[in-house]
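name: query_chain
kind: protein
chains: 1
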Amino acid sequence: MILRPAVNVIRSVLTSRIGSMAGLLCDNELAAMGKNPDTLSTEDLDAYIMRLVEAVSPLLGRTKAREAGNEMSAAALSVLYGVEGGTGGARVHKFKVVQAYIIYSDGRLIAHNAEAEDSGLDKDIVSSMLTAVQNFVAESLGKDDTGALDELRYGNTKILIARETDVSMAVVVTGEQFEPVRTFMAQALKDVTRLYGPVLKDWSGNLAVVQGIQYYLDVLCLSGPIPLEAVEMPVEAASPSPHGGTAEETSCSDSINVASELEFYGGFIRLKIGVKNRMSMVITNVTLRISYDEGAFRYDHVEPIFDFKGGDVLLGNIGAGEKKSMALFLDPLICMDSYIDGLLTYRDASGNLDTVKMKRKLVSVVCPMLFTNGEMNVAMLKRMVEAELHQQDTRAFKIPPDMTGETALAIARAAVGRHDLKMIREFRRKGEPFAAELWFHARIKGREEKVVVRTSIIKDAGVMELFVASESLLVITGLLAELRHDVSAELEKRGLPKESLQQITDKNALTEVLNRVPLLMQGDPAEFPPGETEQR
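structure:
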C-alpha cells in the first residue's frame, strides 16, 4: 500500500497545529526511522505518529499533543481506507461506515460508535442479536466446519464481521470495495487481543478496564473528535493474583508502583528503588529522574548497570507483571538534611506518556560529636583497625603536581584538626618520594563508640587519603562528608581553588589506594619508641 497520501495528510494536520516548522519536523522523524514517504509501511505508521506526538509535546503540552496524534491517526486512516485516488487526484469515498460494534464472546457490548448519535437502535440488543446469529450459524453448520460467519447483507447495507478468541467486531457499511475495512478490523482485533487479552479472558463486565478499545471504533467511524479518555489503557489488571482470586482495582497511577528505601552503605547513601508494572501490558521508554541537591550529594554509580544521563536512569521496557530494581549510590558532601525526589516517566501500550512520583525521601547525614578520653598507643590503634572496627571507608583526592607533599599534609592535618580528635602518631617515609601518615583517635559523645581517622599523603601516586574506621556506618558517612568539606575550607583559606584536590572516583584507582599497606602496619608496634613522629 502506498502511504505517501497518508504522510501528506499527517503533515497537513501538524501544520495546522504548529505552523511551518511541521514540515521539517516530519522529515526529521522519518529520517530518524530510516524511512521516506515511499518506503513507510502500514506497520510503521503508528510509530511515526507516536514519534511526532512526542516531538511536539514540549511545544503543545501533553494534552494537545495527544489530540493532534488522534487527529493525525484519523486523517491517515481516512485517506488509506476510506478514500481512493493518489496525491493531487480526486478523492472519492467508496464506502461509508454507519455503525461499528466490538462485542464480548457472550454477547455483551464492549464498545460502539455510530454515524448518528440517535440511530433508533438499541446497541446492546443489536450486539446480542449479532452474537446469537453467529452462534446459530456455527451450530447449524456443525463443529467440524472451520469457517465462520463474516458477512450479513440487507438491501444495500452490509454487516462485516471479524472474530478473535474472546471478542468480535461488527461494522455496518454501505457502498462498495470493503476490503480496507476488513483489513482494519482484523488488525484492530489483533491489537485488542494483544493489549487486553488477560483482561478479556475472564472479563467481569467492568467497562472501565476496557475503555481504551473504544479508540479503534472512533478512528474507524471518524464521527467527530476522539475523546482523550478513549486512548487510555485499562486502569485495572484483571490477571490472577499470586495469592489467589483477582487483583484488586487500582487507580492509573497505582498500576505502576515505585517503591524506595534509603540506607547507609559503605560510606554512601544507597537509594534502593523497585519499579513494578502491575498492568496487563508492557510499558516502554521507562525513565527514572532523580533530583537532589548537588551541593549535598555526588552521584557515584548505579547497580546493576543502567545508563545514567543527566540525572535520568534509563530502565528501558518493563513487561506486564514484571519488576525492575536498582540501587543508586550517592556520596554525601556535607552533614545536612536534604531531600531526594524521583519522577518515573513511561509510555503505555498506546504510546501515551504518563508519570508516577517516587515518595520524597529525607536524608539526614549527621556529623558525630567527638571527644578524646583515655590512653591510646600504636599497638592499641593497630588492634582496633585490624580486629575491632570492622566498618571502614576512605575518600581519596588527587594531589596536583605543583603541590608539595608537606603542603598536602598540612591541609589534611588542619582539616582533621577542626574536630576533637587526638593525634596518636605521625609516620614518615625516609627519603623521597614523600609519604606520611597521621593517625587520630576519638570517642563519640553519648555512645562511647571508638573512631580512628588516618590521613595519608603518597606523593609518588599523587594521592591524599582520608580514612575512617568505626563501629557505625552512620558515623563513617557523616564524618567523611564533614572532612571532605573541611579540606575544601582549608584550600579556600590558603587562597587555593577548591578544585585543587579532585576526589578520585575511578574504582580501579580507589582499589589501589585501599590495597596499599599503611606505614603503621609495616613494622612491629611494640618496637616503636614513644613519640609523636616516627621515621619508617
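note: Confidence is low (pLDDT under 50) at residues 83-93, 222-253, 525-536.
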